[in-house]
Every structure is written in structure tokens, then in C-alpha cells.
Amino acid sequence: MTLLPSSPGLKVIPGPTRAIEPACSLDRRQSTPRAMWWFEQGWCFLPVFLVVWSSSTFIVSYVVALFRRDVDVLFPYISDTGANPPESCIFGMMTFDSACAGMATIYSRFKFVEKLCEETRAVNPRLNKTALALGMLSCLGNCVVATFQETAVTTVHDIGALLFFLTGVLYILLQTAISYHAFPYGSSLAVCRARLAVAVLASLAIFPTVICAFFVKQKDLHRDAGSKDYPFHVASAVCEWIVAFSFVCFFLTYIDDFKLFTLRVKTEML
Description:
Oligomer: single chain
Low-confidence stretches: 7-32
Number of strands: 4
Order of helices and strands: EEEHHHHHHHE
Largest sheet: 2 strands, antiparallel
């Protein structure tokens, strides 16, 4: 897998301004190249698709479950919205697609940072590989959540959700640290700060998500507001939505970086 600059005839010069200079002069007889739209630059379409598709997964399954009155309007768990058919089918399919898109995005980010490591020595390669492993484990947990419904195989579903959230938060924390280590190469200071804000929010929300869930005894999708464990359910469910959307929105910060490169598969005959 080869990392290439996103524009032909150009090379990226690492530095605070991320300057770009021509690799060769253009023939005056050649026509002026067409200006590319932002989504045509590099691989930035990949994190955009991941964010849009993942957000749509949560919203579509919630709307369908709400329309069928399978969940309460306020404070359902994300998995509650995909517990019963047909929303369970929609939730499972779209979540699995999100996991696959997440793997592709995480691997692409790994290759981008790997190239920065080779050229600048600003990031420890072990840190980059650890982030890759955590990101892939998070996507694996997401696949488990998509495959095993909450009401069908509860234990396996909960293990997958726990794997997804914990390793996902660790992934974005490591990527934030990588961004600061790589600065001023790669991401701008504004992007680093945005990643830090999202990572802190997800880190703060993950604790009540997990801890309060242990005190929730009621398994019915329609929660009794008068039960003793209802406050724990509300705290856990709200924080779960915060963690999920924080993890998804973190990939929005990849768009600017992904404009700078493309990946090509190189085949060699033995």
C-alpha cells in the first residue's frame, strides 16, 4: 500500500503551513487543470461518509422504533432503537457498514501518520500502531453490536458495546496525543484543539455510561419513570449518546488531513 500526494504533479512539504510546491513545471501548451471540489481531494470522502452514515444509523433506527412505538421518546439506549424488527434489521446492516467504513478510515489514518513518522520522526511508531489496534478493536466491537441484538443475546451484545466504547475512547485519546506530537506537521493547532475537546468530552461521558448501567435492572424497552433505577438509566443512556456521537464526530477532524494523500495498491509479481 503506497501513500501518494493527493494532486498529481505536486508534493507535500511538511511544515507549519503545509506548503505545496510543483514537482515539475507545466507546459504552457497544456490546458489549465480543472479545480477539484473539496470532496474530490485525496481521500476526504472516506471520513465524510463514515460520519454521515453512522449518524444516519442512529437517527433512522430511532425514528423507525419511535414510529412503531417500540421505545420511549426520551432516553432510550442506542441499542433499544435496534432491538425489534424491522428496525433491528436496519440497525444491524447500517452498523456493520459503519464498522467497515471505520476500519478503512482508521487504517488510512494509520498510513498517513506512518508517512509523517518516516519524514519527520515526530511521532513514535509504536504509538501509531497501538492506536491502529485500538481502533480496529473498537470496530470489531461495533460489528458484535450489529450482529447480536440486545434482546436476543444480551451478554454478547453488552460485551461488544463495552469493547466498542472503551477502545473507541482510548483510540481518540491516542490520536489526539499523536496530533500534538506531530504538530506543526500534519494537523493545524485548531484541529488539535478540536480533537482534544471531543476526546475530553467522550472520556468524561464514558464513566457514567458504564457505571450507571450496572445499576439498571429493568430490561423492558419502555422504562418505568417511577422505578428506583430510572435515574441511573437516564444518566447512562444520555451519556451513551454523547460518547457515540463524540466518537463519530471525531472523524470529522480527519477531513483536512485526508485531503493531502491517496492510497494506491501496488501489485508485484514474484
